[in-house]
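This is your field. Have a critical look at the following sequence-structure pair:

***
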Amino acid sequence: MKIQNVCCIGAGYVGGPTMAVLALKNPDIKITVVDINKVRIAAWNDSDFNNLPIYEPGLKEVVQEARGRNLFFSTDVEKAIDEAEMIFISVNTPTKTYGKGKGMAADLKYIELSARQIAKVATTDKIVVEKSTLPVRTAQAIKNILDHTGNGVKFQILSNPEFLAEGTAVQDLLNPDRVLIGGEESEDGKEAIEALVNIYATWISREKILTTNVWSSELSKLVANAFLAQRVSSINAISELCEVTGADVSEVSKAIGMDSRIGPKFLQASVGFGGSCFQKDILNLVYIAKSYGLNEVADYWEQVIIMNDHQKNRFAENIVSKLYNTVSGKKITFFGWAFKKDTNDTRESAAIYVADALLDEQAEITVYDPKVSEERIYADLDYLNTRSPEENRRLVKIVNDPYIACQNAHAIAILTEWDEFKEFNWHKIYSSVIKPAFVFDGRKVLDGRTMKQLGFQYTAIGVSIFNSTS
């Protein structure tokens, strides 16, 4: 089957960049990304490519080349569905905040709405591709909806989970470790799989394209994120041990990372992992395990989340402790709000929860982040419902100049590992803050020896309280 028209429902962090690269590498295929969010689509269509709704290194250049040629962004969902032979579903699947499975299960209402809209509009056979991260056996639910439309249209459901890391998403798409495609083991299923394989094979070697059944593909995505998050929580657990024993977590991480059986990736101690995937997917895994009565399996994976929450809480508690057990009325400067560098995504960012804990202690916070907007920061805090929006705006200020952010600060907390933080004039910053000058490095981005020579009271995650030189 030769695909000529592709539709992607959802123009977010996955749908936008993924379809942009697919369009770049398949100029003969028309790709239309649709979303009911008019503001988001307008941003994707902005004449100034610096105003794209998502910041990712290299994304602007990809969109610039493909948009208007064979890449289009639209709010006309039904037209795009009708024209497409292949439809990607790339909508949000947040953790449920209500009803059965609240706080753990994935909320599939947007998936169901997408499936019902496809069923309503489709007049020709379609291949429907799950791009969103979904619980195992969601494909069956989608198929049940699509197969009971009564209009005689045939559907094939594929699972094609994304394995993108925000901040490197474009490179991950251009040169992936693997592409995973799951489908039915019938002749029609194999034909649908091959149609999607052919799209990826225009720039990815077939050895890197894995094909499985649908269930293995769906579960593999959850498991991949769970394993990565487990590594972060594991090294963060060791970071606390390092702080009280005289060890340095960076040295421990390097030592164990050189073991070829372990490897160095995701072994950087920090204030905790964030992002849209890790916590959501582990909670989903926990819920699935519990729903099948696998309580020991659920408890094992839930501990990864417990450790991550603990790391954020103890970082905030350490700030309060070092500032003489009170931050009431004190100005704390946050460097970074995004959950990691090279992205403007703040979902589940550690900064949100550290800020919330300090605000509970009546601190006043000033935030500098090079890519995150003021509106986004306030929205993150308002979403917690810990205090009123008015109080959040009274206690939290957002500035666009890091040096202004530090003026008369009682402490500086580094929450995101932006490279530019290393290049700041820290001597200038030292002269403008209240003494003693405290720096709490939640990402280990600064050189401890240099900071102490400048006069800072410098504390980093995973560095022993007995170690005065790093």
Summary: The two ends are 60 Å apart (CA to CA). The CA atoms of residues 162 and 300 lie 25 Å apart.
